[in-house]
Design brief:
The structure is a homotetramer. Chain A contains 12 helices and 13 strands. The first copy, chain A, is of the alpha/beta class. Chain A has a 7-stranded mixed β-sheet. In chain A, strands 2-1-3-4-6-5 form a 6-stranded parallel β-sheet, with helices on both faces. In chain A, strand 5, helix 7 and strand 6 form a beta-alpha-beta unit. In chain A, helix 2 crosses helix 12, helix 7 runs parallel beside helix 12 and helix 8 packs parallel to helix 10. Chain A is globular and about 65 Å long. Chains A and B meet through strand 7, strand 8, strand 9, strand 10 and strand 13 of A and strand 7, strand 8, strand 9, strand 10 and strand 13 of B.
């Protein structure tokens, strides 16, 4: 990108009315202009970092509540040297990323799409298809149900075609997947599509950055270090997202009815907080609807992911360390010869493939770029 | 204990032929003399630390391969000040603890019991009842199948009466439970006893000290830190122990046949390594054989554990930090109102309740002391 | 101790007017009654844990702002099982420990000593001898300068006689040392007493629990993990304490004038925050006033500490892990054969020898008990 | 770079006799071919990762003892997807990086330079100018003293011109700086050049990856976690390097004799191991040869580093987290108003600016590329 050193809040080269993915893909020219609303949290910071390395993007504006005109380095000392400064308004740009507490992006969405920008929400406001799910899982009434109807669940590996279609419309709203769902849905989709999930326990482990940057006593180093605990029993909001998407995979499969995967009707999702900063490991314990062989599993996953640049199917259980800093999802699936159960394990960097990297990947899909643009980094180890 | 400053390998106050729990409980008098074989590993060190604070124990000898006459502080710098020194032979004592790689204690057992000592094996050599299980799970033929027949699985909360009975016999051999089984069996026993386990996934997380002290490249700080992974898929040796004990609980329950808990026939056990030193959290996902209410669960667990000094049934998911440094097992059990599944979670300090503390608890049972003697420590936090 | 299960705020066995160390040492009988003001922070919790294991203490009351009648386990889940509950008033007891933000204990002190209680302040309000130092280093005017005059700096290894003397007076106020000063002063005292410190750089590293339990964004796990930084340059409040005490040691030495140790006139103290929960390591770089040999150093330190139960002089640089969970201070001092500089390194557990354990040690001194009572724990490793 | 999927051990496009920086800079064309000897350690892995992202480099061969024909992913699972395989011989390439135990690269050096390759040694074999220093500090006699004479200390910020000059010669040997010296020399060079260092204590803290990848019991997670210790007192090999370079800066300064900085004659260097994977923080305590003001310090450092792309002089003490994953060195220098002492603190990622990134920077210097090529990454936080 071109690091815009002062405080641009306008993508001045692009005439109003000529913003958004459709205009860009029709050959408008110039860089893709991008704005970020909610630039001061962990996902926002990571997104800026990635966009600073994206060759086709111009960062047209950053917005963060109560931080107008502050250098971004005050929030993200690692970005000192970028010269970026926080603006005082929602940027005018081809694409606006929102990384905000739930309910906030939904309230801004109408204004954002009205200016022609594609809206890519890193938060949860456009993930669930049914407005009725918001009061149940998120405790708020969705303020923009019409936009919600037009929103696409932005997991390119499963919804690439829908995303591209959305990019050609006047209104482009992408609900980017949550961190746990990204890892879990990718790990289970081939099984769900084949109607193989009879019963399912999703036991996930997350680094602490997923809890965000707000000062909370139970996220202090002294509390988290040398400890592990489960949390959010039976009520974690990401459950709804996993159920929606895994059920949809069942429907998508060949010859499958809605009841293909009884195990995904109510996903047993148990998240854990572990003493690390980044990374999610999701361990999925599956009772299958019929006996499967390892060969069948290997085929299913190879077929599903062999052309996916960011999904690696591996023979040994993956470590989160080996995807740290990358947009990769590494998956291992095995059948237990004693019991016939299937264990499917997925690893991602929660701030990249689980948030900011996935957001950039979605941007690439919308604007017709190679999907790996700006996301080629190998993981960083040790 | 009396810290024996030089290198005693004899409990000299006790005439030969007068050793062991039966002699002690018949009023022999004096301290309980104790020896440790395998004193230089993590479990051995923790056991010494605990026994140094035990009011009724005299540490009669320590043995560690190739370290004869070394101060124990060379192996365990935290025990500098104890003045203890490693001996060159198996100690002559009322009780011998073995903390050794699998197969080694079994080879020494005949000699140890012949001198009248109770044998308490912290390793796995006397945990499985059937000799036939050893070649399958541990890849060795058990060298002392007769002793194995007489061994008791030393989890006092479930086998206290058998342990006491064994203490009255000429041969007293206790197979102390493994770290994962301790947490998991205690967490599930009330459900198993009630015949409630229709299907079961045990997803456990362990600190690294459970992997022992041997220099292995994949246990280096740089490899483990900021990472989580599953390991031992379908083959972890502790699986056999869980199956044996949970099946036995099913049989022990009222009106239950062997088939009471189909979910424990083959336990789906998936252990994970997480970046902390101590602690195990076991998260058990249970499909029940019939619908249960939270009230029923609460009653089952209260009844099972209300008189147990080391088991705390709590209302919120436990953190391993809050049992760190103690012999406690903290358990939380909840039914999912949406799906009817039960989640049962247990937390222990793997080196204490999962190894050395449990060993001391068993010693107390065998020698007729209050079970908490020397184990009264509150957990240490943060 | 006797865990007082309900919420006692009175040491009812002890008639008013008969409280405090003098009464106790004159044979009053009964347990030492103890109250804690500021029970909900890390130091308070650790103090409760230690006192629960102290054989001569009865915990007569706990006080924590805005938490009246809450179980202590709500603040310290590791103390669940103690049955302790927070009271609504300052306890009436032989000794009151205060673990409070600076300035608060000083405001309560007159009331506490008026009831006959000894006051042991874990905070800084009674550490500096000169009232004039408080506005400079702590930015408040000391509200009880008369009590400050009578206060003793409660580091038993250096001020045991003064502490005993204070215990015989009507007013007993102990200013317990800060965590960094405890480690640093013990590490340097023999050098200072011998007038050997010509120049001094104290470079210290602390675990995060020293920053307390308040929710601060820069103490979040995600911020502290995988990072190290210096902080408090030239202004850390513990500097004043080190200067006061090291200068006093210089005066205390044989034949030494005030100018014995020019290096302690202004201590160059640089603290660092490192990614661990507990522990302080202080690395002291000393230019000596004259050449010294290793033998001379060894003699100086052996002489100073050979009878101290909590100070261990060791031959190799100590790890904080090897004093974790104990009241020990482990010290190593070496002269560089190339340059003649001396490196003196000290390690403590900041919450024990640096706070709560030291407080219990001081209690033992005041009430005439063996100094190790309730503090016999070996460090817990790994 | 072009990821060469099979196992090329020859840069086949480049005729023999036409290798090395001089040929390249004279317009030979094509990519810079690069080989790595010692590809399986942490520095080697990091170097591969960086070179995979370098636009002008072709990775012509990897060599790692006893791993011929293994995929690199077996050593570095994060590099799975690169398709790289380890070769069985020293590669034939424009530049050979060696990342080997001390003494090994020196033994291979003659062969490497004979084929025309520039040799960039990440190990210590070409850092010290005097062959006589090797038996003293490294305990071996240097096998190639002639090459050592021609070697340049490869810290571009101080020796850029010499490095460029070396690139024009037939024999190009670069001794790349050690991790501690990189941070420390950059942090102190402006003071040394101004003849300001009267006395110096360097107190450094390193993450564990600096200890390498060999399985050592004291580098196990359980030993390092929750602990800090000093090591290598008075004998750390990096001391020699710091003394050589800081003394040279003194000579380089205006009007300075060799005795300009008495404090660097024998550097008091005390390294510490802290529980993190990556990062070095060096805290330098300086007594100055004359009084200095903060303004003077600010000017000195601004002048020294304002045009350096990888050195950032900052106003607040830097955290290693904020340079993690980058080639940056962040420096803060302050004068103590009370004592006049100067504290200078530097932070780097030890595997990047302290090893592999610095190596790539040196490659860029030698081959005439912009110095930041392939090293533009912002640090990755949190």
């Amino acid at each position: 990108m071109t690091a815009t050193q002062s405080t641009p809040s306008q993508a001045s080269n692009v005439p109003a009315g000529n913003l958004g993915p459709a205009a860009y893909r029709q050959g408008r020219g110039g860089a893709i202009t991008v704005g970020i609303v909610g630039a001061t949290g962990y996902a926002g910071g990571e997104l800026i970092r990635l966009l600073l390395g994206h060759p086709n993007v111009e960062l047209a504006g950053l917005y963060g509540r109560n931080r107008d005109h502050q250098p971004i380095a005050a929030s993200h000392p690692n970005l000192s040297g970028s010269g970026l400064v926080i603006d005082g308004a929602i940027p005018h740009a081809d694409a606006i990323f929102t990384a905000l507490p739930h309910g906030v992006a939904a309230g801004m969405a109408t204004e954002i799409v009205a200016q022609g920008s594609a809206l890519l929400d890193i938060g949860p406001d456009f993930r669930l298809h049914s407005p009725a799910d918001y009061p149940i899982w998120y405790k708020f009434d969705h303020p923009a149900p019409d936009l919600l109807t037009q929103a696409v669940y932005g997991l390119p590996e499963l919804h690439r075609a829908e995303m591209r279609a959305a990019a050609g419309r006047d209104v482009t709203v992408i609900g980017l997947p949550g961190c746990y769902p990204t890892a879990t849905i990718l790990t289970l989709a081939p099984l769900a599509r084949a109607g193989l999930i009879a019963d399912l326990a999703v036991d996930a482990k997350s680094g602490v950055s997923g809890a965000g940057r707000e000062a909370k006593a139970d996220m202090l180093f002294s509390e988290v270090n040398e400890s592990v605990k489960a949390y959010g029993l039976f009520s974690h909001r990401h459950t709804a997202e996993m159920e929606q998407e895994l059920q949809a995979q069942g429907e998508a499969g060949p010859l499958l009815s809605r009841e293909a995967n009884p195990g995904v009707a109510t996903v047993d999702f148990l998240p854990h907080l572990i003493p690390m900063t980044r990374g999610i490991l999701t361990s999925c314990h599956v009772r299958t609807t019929r006996p499967v062989t390892q060969e069948e599993l290997d085929s299913l996953y190879a077929e599903a992911y062999q052309d996916e640049p960011f999904v690696q199917v591996v023979a040994d259980p993956p470590s989160t360390k080996h995807v740290f800093g990358s947009n990769l999802c590494r998956i291992c699936v095995k059948v237990d010869p004693r019991s016939g159960r299937v264990i499917a394990i997925g690893a991602i960097d929660n701030l990249i493939k689980g948030a900011a990297g996935q957001a950039v990947q979605a941007l690439n899909v919308l604007f017709g770029l190679p999907e790996t643009t700006g996301l080629e980094h190998y993981p960083l180890a040790p």
